[in-house]
Amino acid sequence: MENLAWDGWFAKNGLPCLSLTYEQIQQDPRASLEQIARLADVEPVWEADLKSGLEIQRDTINDEWRKRFLSEYADAPSFRHHRYRIRGFLR
């Protein structure tokens, strides 16, 4: 929803918008920077060996938390926050 709001803001102001994901940048940092350079109308300059500097930070603990969360809350009607039921959660 937040991305949709940004897309609308850029369109309303007549500005071009470029959306890149972490995975796209990690997989091909050179192509990502070339897209950014084109958008900024500049000539990219970098070293021959270009690395993103990004590293995957998840580990087995993150996987365990995800599994636990999904086992407890994947069924939307069972998700409760205090005494209030949140509808449509994780649909």
Automatic annotation (TrEMBL):
Residues annotated as domain Sulphotransferase Stf0: 4-70
Q: Name one Pfam family in it.
A: Sulphotransf
This protein's name: Sulphotransferase Stf0 domain-containing protein
InterPro entries tied to this protein: P-loop_NTPase, Sulfotransferase_Stf0_dom
This protein's source sits in the domain of life called: Bacteria
Species of origin reads: Mesorhizobium amorphae CCNWGS0123
